[in-house]
Records
---
Amino acid sequence: MEKKVLITGVAGFLGSHLAKELLNEGNFVIGLDNFSTGKRSNLQGLLDNNRFFFKELDVCSSYLLDDPDVQHVQEIYHLASPASPKYYQAFPFETIQVNTIGTKNMLELAKRHQAKMVFTSTSEAYGDPEVHPQPETYRGNVNTWGPRACYDEAKRLGEVFCYEYFKRYNTKVKVARIFNTYSAGLANDDGRVISNFVTQALKGEDITVYGDGTQTRSFCYVSDTIHGLKLLMEKDGANGEIMNIGNPVEYSIIELANLVKKLTSSTSSITFHPLPEDDPKVRRPSIIKAKIILGWAPSITLTEGLQKTIQEYKVKLNLIN
């Protein structure tokens, strides 16, 4: 049955992937974006679909709730927010607003229309964790006074808004704590580690590792992340729950650099640079809760996902036709 779905941040990496999937399933999708970090190019292939309606609008707008174009929605995916340190540190106040005021607006819209809602929070809610891997019950080791706080703490406060709307109004909201997600669709100038490494390797530039490379991350291919978000929306048992969505297989950054170098047959050197302030040393999700409630686990290995990403970046960089 066709649903009317609202996606905020639709011109972003995850938003545009999600919109394509929902349209392919026969849904009507309303996409909002103010292009602060979203790219118009991500909307290619969406705008000519007659079941897609795009509106250039800031989700923090006080006019949003009464906008006739967003009424009677059945599902809301609130994805709007800068997600790369490069961007959220450049736009700290906008990052704080979209995850707090913007989240409250979306929750109010969900409450008015009895809509389901997924809020995309982040693994950054765990800060530089002292518990490993990180279960949803872990409260985090976070810093409110640093360059990452505008993102980490705004997402955490967004979760509080979700809690209050669920407890007070029984709003059908679910929170996804998303761990590192990547794919060929991630802009090659995004500033995140996989886009950096693949671009540098393909161009024969130095692969820049921050710190000594022993810090770890877990990388989830975008189709697995999107599948998790859709299951989160679908399952009523997830209402009022926080769920880790990420790949539990952990790699050190130096392992990733060497794997990218190998898969690209690159002659790049690996160079080491000072670690940015508050950069987490480890990051790996416990996905037991997602397995039990959603029946979800990622299926694409890092090697498989990197091969797809490398092939697409070669096209983007005009290295192949």
---
Amino acid sequence: MKEEQSANKGGVRVDTREKIARRAEKEIESGNYVNLGIGIPTLVANFITENKQVVLQSENGLLGIGPYPTEGELDADLINAGKETVTAIPGSVYFDSSESFAMIRGGHVDVAILGGMEVSQNGDLANWMIPGKMVKGMGGAMDLVHGARKTIVIMDHVNKHGQSKILKECQLPLTGKGVVQRIITDRAVMDVGSHGLELIEVAEGYSVEDILNCTEADMTVSEKVKLQAF
């Protein structure tokens, strides 16, 4: 309970987001072309280990995104899809949006790591709008969930009211149906397969029972579930 209450405070909240991003980085293999969505996914770029050769792609026209810039590296013209300033690695390439989406739709992105508002037990994803609230548009999310070879969603396990964000059925407008293969939250890692949702890892500070109790979706527990995994 203390963790849940303090997670709303600036310092601890950042630590929770960092915890999710660090775990998500383990999903990336050397040689991958990866697209990082807006929000927590953008933090993943800061934790890619030096032994991995990874190229990050942004739908606004940059192939080869580096970590967030220091004050001395700041270039206001160099941004990611979320309009955050970034750096570019040696050999980076710039291009227009049509070419960027051709890469995505053509199946050239190995992994898309996206944020989520809701995910269903069947892998449906809702991550682009809440009815009644103004949004700028879906961006590249709908293209990414269908064009990337693997889609991983990273997010908090519950919302600010303590309600599960992993549901039997999504209530918000969908980005895609049956498109998510893995979900990583601050509490657990779950796979979406042909037989539904499976719990494969439990974060430090939680038990299998805790995860089942805070998840609305039906879920089985892997025989090889890793406890206190991250």
---
Amino acid sequence: MINKYKIFDVHIHIFPDKIAQKAVENIGRYYQIDMYENGTVDALLESGRQLGVDRLS
């Protein structure tokens, strides 16, 4: 079945590659939650593709 609705993710967080991993670790520690990505643009785009997200902003 093809989804007739587009999926937009309008709340994203990305960081410069140089600090992305440390930023994600600190955010996870601060909020006491598990973080699953590394905070880079490439990781965001790949996870969006895998999940079928049509637009990230």
---
Amino acid sequence: MAQQVIHPMVKLQRHVRSLVDSKIVKPTDSISKIALLYGSEWSYWKKELLDFGFATQDPICDLLEVENWDDD
């Protein structure tokens, strides 16, 4: 039985969706707002987001709309 590996960005996306569902952040808030929640891990996630073409001023809803996190 092969175990499927989940892309790190899918994990981030799921966590951010949970934050939105819990009303901790709003979909219209900028991605930079989640930086406060990630603390020292934020530099890693910021780099990943920038590599995928996101800017920290982009709304969280843009991050949640991604359906496929290919590294290509």
